[in-house]
Specification:
alpha+beta, 6-stranded antiparallel beta sheet
């Protein structure tokens, strides 16, 4: 399956909404943390961002909320790279609780040079790492709403 490490996060009490389950914004927050973990694993970590002024910017996301998440649950996010280009990467995240799929997110992210204010190519080493991780997309990837 994926060549990336799982990301784990305990649900915090302040993330629980008035319906007694994880509020929708916090699914996205945790998926964002999982994207950060992918960045760290491929060489786009904090030191890289500081040294180069470059980072990934998510420009599109599709989230599917499949099941409620109760307080204090342990979230496990499995991530996979499903596409890459000179300046972009497509990532699918799957969030589970006790091996039950609770949400998915598909993102398109661009490699941006903050000083120039535009996209820039990945360094060769990062591009090679991303390319080596590419897997076929899961069945839900590429869907549209409606």
């Amino acid at each position: 399956m994926t060549g990336l490490r799982e990301f784990r996060q305990q649900v915090r009490p302040e993330w629980i909404d008035y319906n007694g389950h994880l509020s929708e914004a916090y699914y996205v927050l945790v998926f964002g943390f999982a994207t950060d973990a992918v960045m760290d694993q491929v060489g786009l970590d904090a030191a890289y961002r500081t040294d180069t002024g470059c980072s990934l910017y998510t420009v599109e996301a599709h989230v599917r909320y499949l099941r409620e998440v109760k307080p204090a649950a342990e979230l496990v996010v499995t991530s996979r790279v499903v596409g890459t280009g000179a300046k972009k990467v497509r990532i699918c995240h799957e969030m589970t609780v006790a091996d039950a799929l609770v949400a998915t997110e598909e993102i398109m992210a661009l490699h941006v040079d903050g000083a120039q204010g535009g996209t820039t190519s990945f360094p060769d080493a990062v591009a090679d790492r991303l390319a080596a991780l590419v897997e076929p997309p899961p069945p839900y990837a590429g869907r549209r709403i409606g």
